[in-house]
Amino acid sequence: MLHWFNQKFLSPKTFYTTSSSLLPWFIAAFVLCFGYGLIAGLFFAPADYQQGDGFRIIYVHVPSAFAAMAIYSVMAVSAVLTLVFRIKIAAICMSCSAQIGAWFTFLALVTGSIWGKPMWGTWWIWDARLTSVLILLFLYLGFIALQSVITDQQNRDRAGAIVAIVGVINLPIIHYSVIWWNTLHQGPTISQFATPSIAPSMLYPLLAMIAAFLFFYAVILILCMQNQILLREIKSQWTKEVLCYDY
Amino acid sequence: MHSLQPNKLTIDNLAFERNNQFLFREINFALQAGDLLQVRGANGSGKSTLLRMLAGFIEPQGGTILWQDKSICQHRDAYQQQLHYLGHHNGIKHSLTVYENLQLHAALMTNKPEPNHLKTAIKQVDLTHVSHTQAIHLSAGQLRRLGLARLLLHPIPLWILDEPTTALDADGQALLGHLLKQHLTNGGMAIIATHQTLAILHNTKTIYLGEQHV
Amino acid sequence: MFSSLFTIMRHEILMTMRQAFSWLTPLLFFVIVVCLFPLALGPDTDLLNKVAPAIIWVAALLAILMSIGNIFRSDAEEGYLDLLLLSPVPLTLLVLCKVFSHWMTNCLPLILISPLLGLLLHLNAHEEYALIITLLLGTPVLSLLGAIGAALIVGIRGHGLLLPILIMPLYIPVLIFGTGTMMAANANLPINGYFAIMGALILLSLASAPLLTGLALRIGVNQ
Asked: Which residue of A1, A184, A188, C164 sits 20 to 30 Å from the alpha carbon of C145, by its own alpha carbon?
């Protein structure tokens, strides 16, 4: 029965057609959120008391870090679905998400570093958050590296799924051990920029940017997955029709 | 052998593809006690893949494999205890001696490795004189004989042998023929991949791979 | 069943002992790397004492990483991995067998020689005690997690540095807690709590790693 469900609702073809119709909505949502977030964040949110206008990089840094974590969760769930239920589109989602997630992680690190220069006077600081994000980047890169070396498609999916699951099990452990490591070495000084309360005029654009980044992820994910589906199902009749139709 | 119902292996419409190319498809056969199946085909025609699929290492992408009318995909562990697999590499650890290798293999089959039992197996494949030599010093033919010795440790119904004649000299091939005949007469089954003609034994079926290449 | 496992373990250790370089090399690597640091840092006693936990732990980690990548390699090449999968003995137990044998032959020598290296880096008795116990508790985790990586790359030819890339992030908690414990010992703070945490890491690894390694082996055997 599960097999039937898999075939009927989760087949690559169904996903392709469904996602094609959803794509314009995601694009529209992205444009709206991004537009509002950017304009409100850059022009209308008041300058920070301590940092002045420099804090505005938060509107790129926090959403990318958030997206990086969220995408890893999506990868982990897809990995479980791939390994346990053998769902093909879950495997495709996992592979595509990894590449997107790695870029977001890199963006988070770079923007964090740019933020750090005026904030802490240095391009890099080994605080708990940045270190965790760096380790997250390594987890992503390890996954991508392994997948790039395995030639057989099915093996690639399943081996990648194992790496993703191992990573997600270890992620909380790594995160808390890094926090503990940080307090051990830094003492009571709070070196992280952590405002317990944030003004609504700053917060709403931030939330909008987070949503925008997630919609962007959805758009790119759908495009990437559609590509992968066409590549994998290249021998099927429906892919031939789709490709001919486009031309 | 030693089971209540007669052993039966049924293959139905088996197919396997790799990287968008079918290696083989529409493979059908049924084996019963005393049957020998020869899988023939040129190099690269998928013989090893088929044998590994029959040993339960690879999942078929189409069709079913039934042992005692039960799908092996669902009863993999039970099925794999009913078969011996001898591949290109003999499963021999090179830094152990012949005797130690068989001890290890017996332990893997969870048999108590009684010394007499092991010595009998070594004698049957004519390796007594190198019984305490490290496998790394053995010739390819001797390694293959050691691989065959493993099959003799414990009576198991299904033998899956991938090109067992490789590296065997005339004596070795005669030995293989003798062991096979013994096994089949005792009610066992065997599936053998070979690219040359084996001495045809009673109850031999043959399938050819390669003509079915897509 | 247990006599089988015992036989298998005995043979694993026998095989490793026969190939002396397989366990000697990581040990020598460990010693050499630790000795490189005083050459790089200078002979200042206080400095060496302060960075000793980091040096010894990182060197041990690298040494183990060097050796664990190959635990399944020869098995795959010799067709022995097929026999492991076909065996009625549960794969998780077989994996545990192999990892334990690896730990005994590769990690135990490191633990035994570590007090000597601690002397070279001017550790006092209490710190040496912390060193031995943390290595004792940490190296099993490194072996177990490394086995997962080794199983994932078992069929891949020319894997190069893929194993460290895969496994390093997983090693970070062990590294942090191992060195943290030793630094606490340096400051004469209570360390039994840290031992408990490392014990928890072992239990977590024991519960998850053999299973995941088995899964990875089933995939890898077909490459």
From this structure: A184
Taking Cα atoms as reference points, which of C202, C209, C45 lies closest to residue C133?
A: C202
In a domain, B88, yes or no: no
> pTM of the prediction?
0.88
In b/e form, how buried is each residue of B136-151, taking b as 16+ CB within 10 angstroms? Answer: eebeeebbbbbbbbbb
B170 lies in some domain: yes
Q: Within this chain, do residues B1 and B78 fall inside the same structural domain, yes or no?
A: yes
* Identity of the residue in A152, A159, A178 whose CB atom sits nearest the CB atom of C176: A178
Find where tokens 């024991």 sit: C206
**Contacts B20 to A, Cβ<8 Å:** 234-235
Q: B213 and B170, same structural domain?
A: yes
Where in chain A are the domains? 61-189
pLDDT of A61-117, one tens digit each?
889 999 999 999 999 999 999 999 888 899 999 999 999 999 999 999 999 888 888
* H-state helical runs in A86-198: 88-120, 128-149, 153-186
Torsions phi, psi of A233, nearest 5?
-100, 25
Give the closest of A152, A234, A235 to B18, CB-based. Answer: A152
Instruction: Answer yes or no: do A178 and C172 touch at CB < 8 A.
Output: yes
Instruction: List, for residues A16-65, the tens digit of each pLDDT value.
Output: 888 889 999 999 999 999 999 888 888 887 777 777 777 788 889 889 99
Query: Which of B115, B135, B155 is where one domain is finished?
Result: B155
Q: Which domain holds residue B110?
A: 93-155
